[in-house]
Amino acid sequence: MSMIKYIIRRLIAMIPVIFGVLTLTFILSRLMPGDPVLASLLARGINHPNQEHYEAMLVELGLDQPLIIQYFRYLAELFTGNWGISVSIKAGEPVWDLVWERLPRTVDIAIFSILIAAIIGVRAGVISAKHRNKSRDTIVRGLALVGVSIPVFFFGMLLQYFIAYRLSEVLGFRTFPAIGYKSMEYPDPPFVTGFRIWDSLFSGQIYLITDYLWHLILPVFCLSFISIAGITRQSRSSMLEVLEQDYVRTARAKGCKEKDVINTHALKNSLIPTVTVIGLSFAGLLSGAVLTETTFELNGVGDLLIASITGLDYWVLSAIVFVITIMFVVLNLITDVIYAILDPRIVY
Amino acid sequence: MDQDIIKDLEEEIELEPEQELEKPTTYVFSWLFRNSKFLAIPGLRDENLTLREIEYEKQRSKRKFIRRFKSVLTIIGIVIIFLVITLVVFPDWIAPFTFNEANAIWAGAWDPPSAENPLGQTEFGRDVLSRCIYGARSSLTIALPAITFSVIFGVIIGVIAAYYGGWVDSVIMRIMDIFLAFPGLILAMVFIAIWGQRIEYIMLAWGILGIPFYSRLIRGNVLQARELPYVEAAKVAGAGNWRIMFRHILPNCIQPVIISFTFEIGGIILSLAGLAFLGYSDPMMIEWGRDVDIGRHHLYDAPWASLWPGLMILVTVLGFMLMGDGLRDALDPRLKNL
Fold first, then answer.
1. Is there a contact between A164 and A178 (Cβ–Cβ < 8 Å)?
2. How many angstroms separate the CA atoms of B100 and B200, rounded?
3. Considering only alpha carbons, which residue of chain A is nearest residue B336?
4. Which residues of A293-328 are buried (b: 16+ CB within 10 A; e: fewer)?
5. Could A153 and B189 be called an inter-chain contact, meaning their C-beta atoms sit closer than 8 Å?
6. Which DSSP string do the residues of B139-178 spell out, in sequence order?
7. A87, A340, B127, B271: which is deepest, by most CB within 10 A?
8. Bridge partners of A203?
């Protein structure tokens, strides 16, 4: 019960942050140089607009209103799901459709990456701590250091060049696809949720799922490698700390197997700080997702974001920022809840 | 015996005579600069130690510091940083082409490595080796001012927020939360789209985006230090708020900032490369990230054009990370601050 109360309290505490982010987005988008009216006129094919065209478009976009009214209208539209019409990327298309067409892929690679990174990172940290200062520890630490230092787009290109291209040449068959999220000849499944896996499942086209996952392997590997590094480092150091505690010595003294000591006595306690790092790395993961999408040409929300900044599409920009913020805030909440489950000493 | 030690300590710790005319911020940083060697001694400011123990600890931990710092990986890191700094300072003497030649338009393009172009050519026949060498300069010239900006402002804001507490703290920290809730890359893109693709604006964008991190880092420590007896003693002695904040509390809390500074240089070079990769860089400069982006479209017929600049980013960042790792192991043996 206290948990539900705690979640509600956290949700209320997040409201100012969400409003702050939205206000900041509004201010920043209105500060951008360039004229969205002209941009949208050009996007609709009116190359030589006259005064009438301009004023009509101004009214249509709602930019003739005072800023304060624009601000409240913007907030109201975001929360009611009416995210406006795209002006320059795909003129006339509702922003909601545009975002929902691309967001699922970003969410997919982010979720897969964070899951894989969490599992492998914690395991690698435990192994590294168990064999402290041995060769295995050195290898894991060295890899983690390289993972922290490597630019995500450079790692993606190494994968594309050496695995998708060179290895295929050597082996004589196609190993992994280098770009894209589906094979050319495969169709899109009928739209239900927007998430390709579920849509394919609903329409019974299982081969689409395997094809999709096959395409996601390299991007997910690329993106998770970056997050694994941070998680491994945290997991290693907290595991080292836990292994020096009295109860670990007690467990060893009473004759537990080393495996049980690590997995049942030490692991859960060492996870507490690691969970925080996993939650915090999600913001970095989203930045990385933008770069990974560009490298692997996944056509995700990152490309849309860049296009909206270059094309002065305020509505698309604010919708994406809104979605990302909500995702981030919800993920922080989940982190805190997991934290509370892992550490029963914390009372709310 | 004890009197001598006290005198020595007073001489060492209070190196600077009282100068009331100096501005608080000026004397903080001059003080830090002169006394930074003491900040590396873990036991020095532990109030539970006697003077004799402090003296003992000082000698011991100096030796320990050097011993811990002398690992192979740290030395590799320092060598890498040294090489990169050489590239930053003397590119004209090292690179086979001058800056203008490396930025000019030549007859050929995308040629493989040859005697003239040891690492091959990128677009417009530009030499990859020269561009790799000149790229070091732009990376570090943006990263260092940006990070200095964020350290100075982040530390000042963090100390003020934690020291005054109450509504000041909550307002400042809510604003920092808002900045932290954004993925940094996206915010930097928006900032640079607003201000324009100039080097000073890129510096400023990253400088602003680094502030929340440092103010959070120092805030936690200041919150603890605020309650310690020496702050009370300073208050009783009649010190003003600024003096307590920046001469008494700050030197005791600055250590995690020093540790993370080296890491963050690596991190900011990485983010900078990411931004340049997305096309947000100063077009007048040679940047590794942009070279990778240019070479990306010819990855299969001219891999050298994109893989070498990418490798340069990796090696540079790795150097700073190795150095940061060594520094952390040496300064913070219990790994409190990860």
1. yes
2. 21
3. A237
4. bbbbebbbbbbbbbbbbbbbbbbbbbbbbbbbbebb
5. no
6. HHHHHHHHHHHHHHHHHHHHHHHHHH-HHHHHHHHHHHHH
7. A87
8. none
**Tens digit of pLDDT for each residue in A233-252?**
888 888 888 888 888 888 88
Name the burial class of residue B190, with classes exposed (0-12), middle (13-18) and buried (19+) by CB atoms within 10 angstroms of its CB: buried
pLDDT-based confidence at residue B338 (cuts at 50, 70, 90): very low
Cβ distance of A20 and B289 shorter than 8 Å: no
- For residue A78 the two structure tokens come to 């975001």
Residue given tokens 């006129």 in the structure block? A41
pLDDT bracket for residue B336 (50, 70, 90): very low
CB contact under 8 A, B338 and A233: yes
pTM (2 d.p.): 0.79
Dihedrals phi, psi of B313, to nearest 5 degrees: -60, -50
Give chain A's radius of gyration (CA, Å): 24
CB nearest to B322's CB, from A20, A145, A287: A145
For chain B positions 146-185, those within 8 Å of chain A (CB to CB) are: 174-175, 177-178, 180-185
> What are phi and psi for residue B3, nearest 5 degrees?
-60, -40
Q: Which of B174, B277, B321 sits opposite A148 (nearest CB)?
A: B321
A&B contacts, CB < 8 Å? 131
The Cα–Cα gap between A141 and A230 comes to: 10
**Tokens 């795909």 belong to which residue?**
A90
B299/A286 CB distance under 8 A: no
* Residues B315-324 pLDDT 10s: 999 998 888 8
- pLDDT exceeds cutoff 70 at B144: yes
| Rounded Cα gap, residues A191 and A183, in angstroms | 18
Distances, alpha carbon B197 to alpha carbons A26, B75, B193, B194, B210, in Å: 21, 37, 7, 9, 19
Residue with tokens 């892992």: A342
Tens digit of each residue's pLDDT (9 = 90 or more) over A40-93: 777 777 777 777 777 777 777 777 777 888 888 888 877 777 777 777 777 677
Q: What is the pLDDT of residue B1?
A: 47
d(CA B295, CA A160): 13
Give the closest of B174, B190, B299 to A20, CB-based.
B174
| Token representation of residue B294 | 């240019």
Tell me the pLDDT tens digit for each residue of B10-66.
Answer: 555 554 555 455 555 666 667 666 666 666 555 455 556 666 776 676 666 666 666
Interface contact B318-A149, CB threshold 8 A: yes
